[in-house]
Structures are given as C-alpha cells and as structure tokens.
Amino acid sequence: RQAFTILEVQELNVNYGGIQALKNINLTIQKGEVVTLIGANGAGKTTTLRAISKIVNPKSGEIIYSGRNITRRQAHEVVKLGIAHCPEGRRVLARQTVLDNLLLGAYIRANQAEVKRDIQRQFELFPRLAQRRNQLAGTLSGGEQQMLAIARAVMSKPKLLLLDEPSLGLAPAIVREIFSIIENLRATGVTILLVEQNANLALQIADRGYVLEAGSITLTGAASELISDERVRKAYLG
Ligand code: ATP
C-alpha cells in the first residue's frame, strides 16, 4: 500500500483563556492507521481531537487533512470532508430513538437509499442496536450508548474517525466488544485517532502512539515499542 498522509498537525497551540492546553503539538497519521494518544487527565488529549474537528480554534499552528489546510474551516465543513468526532461521554440524543440518532449521523448525506443500506450495515455490526432500534437512546446501557455513538459517527461515512475514550466507565466485557468493533472499522479502511485512558488496550490495537504530558508530546513511536518502554510502563501501564 502506498503511504498517504491523511492528517498532519503542525506546531499546534490551543489556549483556554489563560491556560495553554496544547503546546506546539506535531503529529502525523497515515491513511489506514490506528494511532493512539495517551496521557494523564488534563494532558490535552480531548483538546487535540477538538482542535482537529474544529470544535475549538487553535491559537496558532496548522492542521492539514488530505492535503487541504483545514485550520480555519468550521466544524460542519470538516464533517463533510470526512472527519467524524465521537466525543467523550457518548452524547447520544437521549430523547430520540436509536434509529433517529443514526439518521442524524447521516444528515450531511444526500443519497437516502445509501443511508438506508448503511443503517442496515450498522445493525449487522451492532446487533444490540438492531434489537433496540425504536428504543429511546437515553434508556440504553452505557455500553450500548457508546456503541450508538460510534455507529452514529460512522454514519457520516468518515475517512478519519476521532474516538474519545470509548472504554470510559464500561465493564470489561463491553470494552472488549467495543474494541473488536474498532478492529472491524479499521478493516473497512477507516483511519482512527484513538484517545484512551486505558493505555494498555489502546497500544494493543494501535499501530503507533503519542504520549501527551501537560499539553506537549513527550514520546512517540510504534505501539509495540511504547508498550515495552520503561517510561510508558511506569506512568501509564501500572
Ligand atoms: P481528560 O482525560 O481528563 O479528559 P485530556 O487529556 O483530554 O484529559 P483536556 O480535556 O484536553 O485533557 O484538557 C487539557 C487542559 O485544558 C486541562 O488543563 C483542562 O482543565 C483545560 N480545559 C479543557 N477544556 C477547557 C475549557 N472549556 N475551558 C477551560 N479550560 C479547559
């Protein structure tokens, strides 16, 4: 496979008022890769995803996606270009049904026949959601809501999926299920940037990783190298 850089973040700085959340972040993702960002609470992982999906505006630096500079694009434009953000805390629409949440994920798409077919595909991938298609999303279990959040993001047909803490607060069996779904997504050609507190799991699934500490990238490498790195083991693998 020909290497193709799908995302390049250059010297990115993000401030929240007086707090500098990201300091000169550089990262690169090749098409088809799963790349993970690991780091402690408050290190800036979520902020990195928010800057890429344009929920927050960087103070300086550039974000290049598929050769296009998207630094000054708006969030809805970025979705259209093929970047989907599955936020931390799931954020499904609690008072809408599973099916309506999935349809909402596809709001940018014009071809309704294709949307219908893709909803069927999501139901095959997530049988729990198929059984609950007419149930209100707010009544789903935490794991099912996480599945719905991922399925909804996939409904926008992303080329690059930003996944924030998919395992947060979930029981181990559900976490395994979610990670096998992430594997399946990768197999369909979606490139994934994965933020995880569970560094062990993340490094098992990822090709490469970046370690964020207090807003700066302090370490990067192949996941197989990071998992055996003494500093990573001490700080994140317990
Ligand atoms: P966590 O795993 O706890 O979500 P994180 O690595 O994702 O942590 P961020 O959420 O990106 O970290 O936060 C980075 C820094 O920016 C933190 O110091 C945080 O307090 C601060 N921050 C994040 N969002 C805001 C905001 N909306 N207003 C002010 N400060 C913020």
Specify the biggest β-sheet.
Answer: 6 strands, mixed
**How far apart are the termini?**
36 Å
Shape estimate: globular
Distinct bound molecules: adenosine-5'-triphosphate
| Oligomeric assembly | single chain
Fraction of residues in helix: 25-40%
Q: Please work out how many helical segments DSSP would assign.
A: 10
**Could you list the spans in which at least 5 consecutive residues all have pLDDT below 50?**
none
In sequence order, what are the helices and strands, one letter per element? EEEHEEHEHHHHEHEHEEHH
Structural class comes to: alpha/beta
Which strand-content bin applies to the residues?
25-35%
Secondary structure: number of strands: 10
List the strand order in the largest sheet: 6-7-8-3-9-10
Radius of gyration: 17 Å
Mean pLDDT: 94
Q: How would you sum up this structure, described in words?
A:
The protein contains 10 helices and 10 strands. It has helices at residues 45-52, 75-81, 98-105, 112-125, 127-131, 142-154, 172-187, 199-205, 223-226, 230-237; strands at residues 5-16, 19-30, 34-39, 60-65, 68-69, 83-86, 160-164, 191-195, 208-213, 216-222. Helix 3 (98-105) packs parallel to helix 6. With 238 residues, it is an alpha/beta fold. The longest helix has 16 residues, at 172-187. Helix content is 38%, strand content 27%. It has a 6-stranded mixed beta sheet with strand order 6-7-8-3-9-10, with helices on both faces. The mean pLDDT is 94. Residues 16, 19, 21, 39, 41-47 line the site of adenosine-5'-triphosphate.
